[in-house]
Amino acid sequence: MDFEINTKGKNLFLGLATVTLLLMMVITTLLWWFVSPRLHEINKLLAEISLTALRIFYIVLILGTVLVYLTCFLEKYFLIARFAVVAFNRVLFPVTIFFGRIIGISKDKLRESYVHVNNALMKTINKKFKAKEIFILLPHCLQSTECDLRITVDINNCAGCGKCNISELIKLAKRYNVKIAIATGGTLARRIIIKHKPKFIIAVACQRDLVDGLQDVFPIPVYGVLNERPEGPCINTIVDITKIETALKNIISDKK
Ligand code: SF4
What we know:
4 strands, 9% strand, 2 domains, binds iron/sulfur cluster, four-stranded parallel β-sheet, 256 residues, alpha/beta
């Protein structure tokens, strides 16, 4: 797939994840080294089992990280890359964010970089989807604050005045025959996903919501598009619609 990818953007997260992984290995090895005499005293087998478990944990994480790197940089899909993403998401992601905060890198900067990593991984999926299997999920903050229409209940309540991006996005979804909805939070997003069972999601959100959403809906593939916030967070945000259209052009298998 040929999404618009910010290739430089992903390097911050990948670089910090590598440093985090090395630090984790050093710290856990030192911890084991300190407690191992005590473990030996309790039971010799216990010390050996804990060391083996630690080694397996390292191997899984190293393999996962290497596969994420290879997938991102060679832009080739590896058969076991999905396993790698699980290891990366579940273990390395939260620790990297934590480490980033300690050294003064903002959470949002790291989350943004992580969205680029995710999109680079999506780019390598050599699969297209039927239009009806694709869902566009939007945040409520795209709606103009001057608009009283209840578009969260049904996005088609939008009167199409053009004051915000919603009307253009509805037209885009109709043109490509894909489903579209507004999710006011993680719970609603999950409900929409359970109801419609999409195979591919294009999600628009801020850094925090997008990263939470990516993790929540895993293993459904998600192409993340960050919204822009000219008036600050959560109010009258905008989105570059060409990014969504480019993604649609590239993933729909049954274009008319
Ligand atoms: S485009 Fe739709 S949602 Fe946006 S302000 Fe106009 S009517 Fe409201």
